[in-house]
């Protein structure tokens, strides 16, 4: 299968917002004239935390496409899979993010560090191809969840060896310098990121031409949601090089759900406040799976009693990622980001609240994807 030049990974923890997400991307095309292929992504970690299974994502995507009469291609991404968990995704997914970060060596030559990871990617790819058919899915290779960014020469080596392994990857997720924390903006040197991104685009263009890799090979930006300071840079460079891009977002839709609920009615606002109270009490437990991609300042987290006194507007402004808003609190946002497990435990209340308020949540999702993401990329 072949994915389009531009694609957008739309994670949806609770599989309720497929129609709203697809509407947002349709409106992006109408407004900016840019088509993003929708890719619904959900990892084994998120399925395990919530207690769902991959086919629920497939059903959500198919239902959204049917509801809107959508005629273009769309995908379901088995996000961050490995040999231990890939089989449960085979039937539901047609996009596989092969995560081999744990196989990367800590030191030595590029061969010492990256060849074991490349060999593992080859094993996983062939395992999927044998069970699904090589023509029935898109392959991504992910090496982003590591401590040190890959240099352009290292990426060149990695892609060369992936070509030797006959892995027809269409997207590659490297590690960039700086912090790509969940749900907040990039932290790092913008000039250095621009140099790295520019060089990486050139390496991928070389690899597609010289290594007989797919001609649409493109960079995948993981934890790409909310990296508002980077979007103008990335947009300028992909246009300069006529390159594609895959932006993978995950929990921002869940955050838009909480924002929408806080604005919906007193009952829904009370539920949002209760989720925060429980999350704060269980912060250590909830943050462990995401320790490498969050930076929460405990001293800046409001007391539950203070939050209980907030009106709807205060709650929404504190959570919504708008750095021009004095109330915006990145630590509050990051804690809510990793607290979807609490909402899952309150499913008997949470799901009905979503069903009652899909319209107001949809407005938040459309503004988030269109105004706060794509507009900056293609302004």
Properties at a glance:
379 residues; alpha/beta; TIM Barrel; 2 domains; 8-stranded parallel beta barrel; 16 helices
Number of domain modules: 2
Per DSSP, what share of the residues sits in E-state strands of 2 or more residues? 5-15%
Q: What is the number of helices?
A: 16
Q: What's the CATH H-level superfamily name of the largest domain?
A: Aldolase class I
How would you describe the shape?
A: globular
| Mean pLDDT metric | 96
Distance between the termini: 30 Å
Explain how this protein is built.
- With 379 residues, the protein is an alpha/beta fold.
- The protein folds into two domains: 6-252, TIM Barrel; 254-366, no CATH class.
- The chain has 16 helices and eight strands.
- It has helices at 18-32, 44-50, 54-68, 110-132, 152-164, 190-210, 231-240, 252-264, 266-281, 283-287, 304-308, 312-319, 330-337, 340-345, 347-356, 358-378, and strands spanning 6-10, 37-43, 75-81, 95-99, 138-142, 171-173, 218-221, 245-249.
- It has an eight-stranded parallel beta barrel with strand order 1-2-3-4-5-6-7-8, surrounded by five helices.
- β6 (171-173), α6 (190-210) and β7 form a beta-alpha-beta unit.
- It is globular, with a radius of gyration of 20 Å.
- The model has no long low-confidence stretch (mean pLDDT 96).
